[in-house]
Amino acid sequence: MLIVMHKEAGDRELDAVIKRIEAHGWEAKPIPGGERTAVGVLRNKGPLDPAMFLDLPGVRDVIPVSKPYKLVSREMRPENTVVRLGRGSDAVEIGGQQLVVMAGPCAVESENQALEIAHAVKEAGARLFRGGAFKPRSSPYSFQGLGLKGLEILAKVREETGLFIVTEATDHEVCDMVEDFTDIIQIGTRNMQNYRLLRRAGQAKKPVLLKRGMWATMDEFLMAAEYIMSEGNDQVMLCERGIRTFTTHSRNTLDANAIPYMRNESHLPIVVDPSHAAGRRDQVIPLARAAAAMGVDALMVEVHTHPEQALSDGPQSLYPEQFHELVTGLRNMNISV
Amino acid sequence: MLIVMHKEAGDRELDAVIKRIEAHGWEAKPIPGGERTAVGVLRNKGPLDPAMFLDLPGVRDVIPVSKPYKLVSREMRPENTVVRLGRGSDAVEIGGQQLVVMAGPCAVESENQALEIAHAVKEAGARLFRGGAFKPRSSPYSFQGLGLKGLEILAKVREETGLFIVTEATDHEVCDMVEDFTDIIQIGTRNMQNYRLLRRAGQAKKPVLLKRGMWATMDEFLMAAEYIMSEGNDQVMLCERGIRTFTTHSRNTLDANAIPYMRNESHLPIVVDPSHAAGRRDQVIPLARAAAAMGVDALMVEVHTHPEQALSDGPQSLYPEQFHELVTGLRNMNISV
Amino acid sequence: MLIVMHKEAGDRELDAVIKRIEAHGWEAKPIPGGERTAVGVLRNKGPLDPAMFLDLPGVRDVIPVSKPYKLVSREMRPENTVVRLGRGSDAVEIGGQQLVVMAGPCAVESENQALEIAHAVKEAGARLFRGGAFKPRSSPYSFQGLGLKGLEILAKVREETGLFIVTEATDHEVCDMVEDFTDIIQIGTRNMQNYRLLRRAGQAKKPVLLKRGMWATMDEFLMAAEYIMSEGNDQVMLCERGIRTFTTHSRNTLDANAIPYMRNESHLPIVVDPSHAAGRRDQVIPLARAAAAMGVDALMVEVHTHPEQALSDGPQSLYPEQFHELVTGLRNMNISV
Amino acid sequence: MLIVMHKEAGDRELDAVIKRIEAHGWEAKPIPGGERTAVGVLRNKGPLDPAMFLDLPGVRDVIPVSKPYKLVSREMRPENTVVRLGRGSDAVEIGGQQLVVMAGPCAVESENQALEIAHAVKEAGARLFRGGAFKPRSSPYSFQGLGLKGLEILAKVREETGLFIVTEATDHEVCDMVEDFTDIIQIGTRNMQNYRLLRRAGQAKKPVLLKRGMWATMDEFLMAAEYIMSEGNDQVMLCERGIRTFTTHSRNTLDANAIPYMRNESHLPIVVDPSHAAGRRDQVIPLARAAAAMGVDALMVEVHTHPEQALSDGPQSLYPEQFHELVTGLRNMNISV
Asked: 3-class secondary structure for chain B?
């Protein structure tokens, strides 16, 4: 934290600032400049709130310096984290050499639906099957998912196809059930700051795919991952799924700039969900290609054999042949899928 | 929902659109115009996803028409909802003739702290005491609230001062405890789409103060209130607490435009939290005055006797004398507080 | 500027940073902390671009410290600037004790229209007449204003009613004409960074009302005012007119937080335009009341006797009786209008 | 335009709506639904302002239907526009089969600097040289460009290297000079709604590269292109260069979703400027790769041999070897550069 004094501020104002810093047990380091003085705050643990000094007389500005997170930081751990699923020739590594593709419907609707889609996406190159058993829906009147039965269908999909499973835990109690059935626990965008769920996921024995809140800064997103890691789970993946902006030509805006930023700032694998970033089918393939070209570790894509009948998010789901075309296109870009 | 066809679209494309509408059991109503045809969708229950038709050939644009909510709508209930606390001369009405002020610290830290602040805000004109016992914090390393002990302190505050209590329930289990102790259950901005919590609050016997997610559109905010009401609780208050924008001179941006919009669109009482909308003390009084001048039903203001020692959000808390000055200023504007 | 080094950065990386700072003729001041070192940059004139150091090895973060503006800053000039129009009992002071109201149609359409509206707003309490003679329109097919003829009508309005005039200069050539006719030169939101126009306005002998770009941060807005002042014109007013956010319930979002921020940061008078901030009539009066309650120096309100026939922005114009009600309401709040 | 009535609205309210529509010479088409009636507006030229009907009693909502632009629309012209520079084997086609790369410094600083960079980018695969002679700078105290001398240097670059030239016209007078020297006239982000400049560019004999305003919706951006085309110039390119969002980890956010949207909606060539979208060197290559993978027609990249000494935007400029690496990387993705 750096506290910038007014030009006209005198010793009395400066002393008050130093006193408040020291009252917290921190160290104050005045830095006299040409026009004005600044005061650095040292020996604080964790970041401070700028507003803490803004009300003192003679203070012009207060500037945060430290990052709030530690465990997720590449500074803490320079080498990439790799999330491994399975063993031997069937193993999948997220954060390794290959781009891993996760695909499937928004929601699990029936065993037939899930199996039909699973076979189609496996054939096209997917290694994980995605599908929600518990659905957070913005309307209380919408389909809320099959619940436990959906989880059993997912287990069946894994058994029949060999695809690994990723599915969402919508609260800390649901997480108990999901952990038993899934290979990766997904935390959705609306729950990015559901701290009780984050802590529960941090105690899980399974890897966690954390979706960025559509409103979240990088600091907030990385702090949510820090919550999970602080409970002992270091198998966390960061999923960019679009942010809220002023635009109206798509449901969200893929934050492409976040990809290289996260790569520099964190050692955790990066996943992109082009389906929710787009919200409409005709933008999904371009966004998926963009993400792949930036070197993300995994893509999570909604695919449905009958999207017009889907109970949730059908209109952003690719048809299986479009998904096949997407994977083929990525291979034509010399990306190893 | 209105589906707008391309100029060049012919009968075949139009038929495909009509067929998809009818396949869902809805009615299609073509509206031929000068240059192109549009198709209205009728008899659907609840709003549709525009993307559902965007992939059909010949479709240029799809435009939502219906609002997704019902119970919260002023169309459903033209007269204002009034939330009543207590009886007789001590009763408080939120949504009535007077501006109700809720004030107190961000977090309950100790009995002494809570009582000292409660007496101060009561004297200045507050009718409710606010203070968190369970705190959602963006860092896992920060103070998380006193929990049950905090609730007991709040009960003591009510007993000693006669102030009603509003405090946050951070998840559905915590809500069981909070409901026993509080007069109003608060749902925080990060939980605006925690649907399990919303349903739980909808089953509570106490009124609910719902804070808007900092990213939420009006439709999303009103749908969150609809979740609560759909479980049978019609004592819901809508709290604007600032949205996330590109600006950096404040923690959030108070969405002043939302106040008259909500007044027109919903019958529920409107509360403004200028403290979180500002994030820094020097903007709180101006924002509170602005909200009061627009005729909101209640203000929720953070006040602390020793903000520099506060364990949470001290820098946006008013000193008691500033709070007093705020209330006096509102009365000078001929607002009945 | 503060350059924050990686924990692991050694002397070599630090030296490279210092060398680059000194190569620009500035002074480098290393500040060793507990975990890492930061380097302050001193003796630079004007703010630096953070990216200038981000590419050096061992640099973790670069943080701007100085504000980019000088002349507009309250630090430079502690007392408020007052813009004075006219003399004697007819004089108007913007930035003085009274709230000044500017009112009129979006565009001057005819002499009759202008005079009818002018008489109405004067009677209700307006001191300036607003109306565009040159209109920047987002469609090339829309009404673009009466041009010179519009300016002549404005002169007539002043002569007949005694109201002062404020009207927009849309480019540097138009500014020559506008300066001759008007009392205040308005620069519109789309031209906030039209630097040639800003310089031209800075050479004018008339005060300038500068509207904030709907995308502009406070730094950018204040720098645009600095452009004008740097040419010698110190009669500048800062007009907040709404920013672009993700919301859709209003055309723009009034940035209420900006009002106290500008008051602290600058000595220039503050104007609010609730009409453009709302974009729809039913939000104008609440926003105007909010601005007045925050102590702004002037309001700029669109009023039209026949808004349904207006050639531009009719739907956000108040009817004269609504305008009268607004002014009366402000007086009931004990605001001197 | 579709006007949605309240459930309770009766014949009187409906008649008033119809009357207002017909008063403008348009046609009103009532569409009775299950719960309420909507009214379509037909035979209007160009889009209407929703607020025009929002104030009528009984009106619940007003929904725009038509797009405001024509000439830029793919509906008007289904085949892609191709911008051609030069003839024979040296010809360049933007909007053709190849990805065209434009590269060079932010500002022309000297003949030596320009030639050195030009030779470097040509060798790596660029076909156009970019460089500003007139610079719009947010501070009045910054370097403003070499002006006419800069244009002469650009002419020299073309002569010596055979690269085509793209440079910015900052206002309508400057456009006269720029048109004489350049191959493509660039209009900058801050001038996207400088209508006088847009009209002037529409009268030019040279193609125009129009940068999107960092705040602009797709409708606003396409309307700015419509301004240019409405004056007779149909050689217009749409350049996405990042939008303003709440994020702080980059100067702007590349709106990746806009690329497929513009491709569907318009026949004009699409250019992406990853340098300004990033604002920092370490994000430029990833964003350029993302854009190329989405099939844009051209990239505009800042390159500088000594970015640390650049007078403008050095920190976002690639070194020549990074630029070479970028082009090589694109070719490895099987993109024809």
From this structure: CEEEECCCCCHHHHHHHHHHHHHCCCEEEEEECCCCEEEEEECCCCCCCCHHHHCCCCEEEEECCCCCCCCCECCCCCCCCCEEECCHHHCEEECCCCCEEEEECCECCCHHHHHHHHHHHHHHCCCEEECECCCCCCCCCCCCCCCHHHHHHHHHHHHHHCCEEEEECCCHHHHHHHHHHCCEEEECHHHCCCHHHHHHHHCCCCCEEEECCCCCCHHHHHHHHHHHHHCCCCCEEEEECCECCCCCCCCCECECCHHHHHHHHECCCEEECHHHHHCCHHHHHHHHHHHHHCCCCEEEEEECCCHHHCCCCHHHCECHHHHHHHHHHHHHCCCCC
Band the pLDDT of C36: cuts 50, 70, 90: confident
Question: How far, rounded to the nearest angstrom, does the alpha carbon of residue A268 sit from its chain's CA centroid?
Answer: 10
Of A14, A60, A22, nearest to A41 (Cα)? A22
D127's CB contacts (< 8 A; 6+ apart) are D92, D100, D101, D102, D163, D164
Residue B278's nearest CA partner among B316, B311, B306 is B316
pLDDT per position as a tens digit, B132-161: 999 988 788 888 899 999 999 999 999 999
What pTM value is reported for the model? 0.92
Q: What is the distance between the alpha carbons of residues C100 and C297, in angstroms, rounded to a whole number?
A: 6
For residue C286, give the nearest of B218, B259, B278 by CB distance.
B259
Residue D210 identity:
L
Burial of C139 (0-12, 13-18, 19+ CB in 10 A): middle
- Give the residue from A20, A52, A53 with the most B CB atoms within 10 Å of its CB, the best one to mutate: A52
Retrieve residue A226's tokens.
């820090």
Burial of A141 (0-12, 13-18, 19+ CB in 10 A): middle
Q: How far apart are the first and last CA of chain C?
A: 44
Q: What is the pLDDT of residue D8?
A: 84
Answer for the pair B191, B200: CB distance below 8 angstroms, yes or no. Answer: no
Contact B243 C247 (CB under 8 A): yes
Tokens representing residue A235 in the block: 């198998």
Q: In whole angstroms, what is the distance from residue A63 CA to residue D305 CA?
A: 33
Distance, in Å, from the CA atom of C22 to the CA atom of C27, rounded to the nearest integer, reads: 6
Q: Are strands C100-104 and B270-272 parallel, antiparallel or unpaired?
A: unpaired
| Structure ipTM over 0.90, yes or no | yes
Spell out the domain ranges in chain C: 2-63, 83-332
Instruction: Name residues whose C-beta falls within 8 Å of residue D15's C-beta, 6 or more positions apart in sequence.
Output: none
Supply the CATH classification number for the domain B2-63.
Answer: 3.30.70.1140
Q: Which residue has the higher pLDDT, A29 or A224?
A: A224
User: Is the distance from CB of A274 to CB of A301 less than 8 angstroms?
Assistant: yes
Q: Which of C34, C42, C65 sits opposite A42 (nearest CB)?
A: C34
Fold of C83-332: TIM Barrel (3.20.20)
What is the pLDDT at residue B46?
Answer: 67
- Cβ–Cβ of C315/D52 closer than 8 Å? yes
Q: Is the pLDDT of residue C55 over 90?
A: no
Among candidate residues A182, A126, A185, A116, the one with its CA nearest the CA of residue A150: A182
Per the CB < 8 Å rule, is C217 touching B246?
Answer: yes
Average pLDDT over residues D173-194: 96
List phi, psi (to 5°) of B194: -85, 90
Residue of chain B whose Cα is closest to the Cα of C282: B260
